[in-house]
């Protein structure tokens, strides 16, 4: 039997397999709130412009509210034969209120309807994720304050480079997440235009008021081109791009957590609440949440690449390919929300093995740069010469199996006669850290100031 909404020119109904490939209700029912909000705004506008009567508008409004209550209560019967959320709701409306329900779709198409619903959905998702990123930033700042002076080895190439503080390291992620918030809010600003009233692709002959529906739905303005309005999905792509970059940041922190809590590193310990055991090896404490955050980053990027690939090469305007825009966006949103929540919990709970981190921060000749800098600042050697002298001293210490600070003054002076006992003051981890007072450097006072600035800025939002 032909489709109830568009079957007028059809004698027969779709094959079962046609219905299966065509229907989107299984996932786009997630748009029901946005769909009803869009229809309420559209109906109010139709009445105000005289396209439908006030009586019809009232009946539509009440009918839609009842439908919202049915969906909320779980009594709404979603039908695959009705394809998608738009036709499910519209058909139910006509079933409930008759003629008036059949007038709702005047001057509208599912093409502008779905574009509107989806923008509203992504806008809500951005607001929800922004609150979660902000919460994670706050947690990182609090832990950074606590560990502003806790030494840890800083790495390049994952080789010990120079001492930094654990707080400084955490604040690096705060900066990344701050930019992630910026990207999300940029995407939100650009997506906040209303496609509603673009109809199928060409606009409409009815005297509609697109400014009115745009305002009612919290959009800044209506979109300017009806073809663009129904065929553009770059708001979703931009959102997925921002999520992919954020997920990449979370994945890097997750990877570091995996490394830090491994036995050879033992820099941190995750709480029982954020660790799992092994079914065979009784000693294991596995960082599964961190590993899954790392993996979800891959899937979020997959969602971006998937949708980009769906969209490339589509001729204007709407094509059914675009129905496949929702699942990647929904899945990426869930993955991002879960990742942010799990990361917040892990960071909040983790305990720091300060002794172990301090020991590693001082090993591997981590203060060799400080020695070279001293030769430049005190003896006025050119940096390149100082680098060579220090390199020879490192070689000497390594051959003897000792640290730089364990070389004797005589051994040092054999390489550079100008060296005095003062040199030993700059070879400690604490001296190295305290000296890094350049803007953005790791000196504990800098770290405290940076975390404090973030906390103040967030409190003022
Ligand atoms: N379910 C469709 C989607 O998600 C709604 C738009 C359908 N439009 C159409 N002309 N068939 O894209």
UniProtKB/TrEMBL annotation:
It catalyses: 2-(N(omega)-L-arginino)succinate = fumarate + L-arginine. SUPFAM superfamilies: L-aspartase-like. Keywords: Amino-acid biosynthesis, Arginine biosynthesis, Cytoplasm, Lyase. It comes from the Bacteria. Residues 8-302 form the Fumarate lyase N-terminal domain. Its main location: cytoplasm. GO terms for molecular function: lyase activity. Coiled coil: none annotated. This is Argininosuccinate lyase. The lineage of its organism: Bacteria, Pseudomonadati, Pseudomonadota, Alphaproteobacteria, Acetobacterales.
């Amino acid at each position: 039997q032909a489709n109830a909404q568009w079957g007028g020119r059809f004698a027969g109904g779709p094959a079962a397999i046609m219905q299966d490939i065509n229907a989107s209700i299984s996932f786009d029912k997630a748009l029901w709130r946005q769909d009803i909000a869009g229809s309420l705004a559209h109906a109010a506008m139709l009445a105000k412009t005289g396209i439908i009567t006030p009586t019809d508008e009232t009946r539509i409004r009440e009918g839609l509210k009842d439908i919202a209550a049915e969906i909320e209560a779980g009594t709404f019967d979603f039908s695959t034969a009705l394809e998608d959320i738009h036709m499910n709701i519209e058909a139910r409306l006509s079933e409930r209120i008759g003629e008036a329900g059949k007038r709702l779709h005047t001057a509208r198409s599912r093409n502008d309807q779905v574009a509107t619903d989806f923008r509203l959905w992504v806008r809500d998702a951005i607001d929800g994720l922004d609150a979660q990123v902000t919460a994670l930033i706050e947690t990182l700042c609090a832990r950074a304050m606590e560990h502003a002076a806790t030494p840890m080895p800083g790495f390049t190439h994952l080789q010990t480079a120079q001492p930094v503080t654990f707080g400084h390291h955490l604040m690096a992620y705060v900066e990344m997440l701050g930019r992630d918030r910026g990207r999300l809010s940029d995407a939100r600003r650009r997506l906040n235009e209303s496609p509603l009233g673009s109809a199928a692709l060409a606009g409409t002959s009815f005297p509609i008021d697109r400014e009115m529906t745009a305002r009612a739905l919290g959009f800044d303005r209506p979109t300017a081109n009806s073809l663009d309005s129904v065929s553009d999905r770059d708001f979703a792509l931009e959102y997925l791009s921002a999520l992919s970059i954020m997920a990449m940041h979370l994945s890097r922190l997750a990877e570091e957590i995996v490394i830090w809590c491994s036995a050879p590193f033992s820099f941190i310990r995750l709480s029982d609440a954020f660790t799992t055991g092994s079914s065979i090896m009784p000693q294991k404490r596995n960082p599964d949440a961190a590993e899954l955050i790392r993996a979800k980053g891959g899937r979020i990027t997959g969602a971006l690449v998937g949708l980009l690939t769906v969209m490339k090469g589509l001729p204007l305007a709407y094509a059914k390919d675009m129905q496949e825009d929702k699942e990647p966006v929904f899945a990426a949103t869930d993955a991002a929300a879960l990742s942010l929540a799990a990361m917040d919990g892990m960071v909040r709970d983790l305990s720091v093995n300060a002794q172990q981190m301090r020991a590693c921060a001082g090993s591997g000749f981590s203060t060799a740069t400080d020695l070279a800098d001293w030769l430049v600042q005190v003896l006025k050697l050119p940096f390149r010469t100082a680098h060579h002298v220090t390199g020879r001293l490192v070689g000497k210490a390594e051959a003897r199996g000792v640290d730089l600070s364990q070389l004797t003054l005589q051994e040092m002076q054999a390489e550079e006669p100008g060296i005095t006992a003062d040199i030993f003051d700059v070879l400690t981890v604490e001296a190295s850290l305290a000296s890094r007072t350049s803007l953005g450097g790791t000196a504990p006072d800098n770290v405290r100031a940076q975390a404090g600035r973030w906390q103040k800025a967030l409190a003022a939002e």
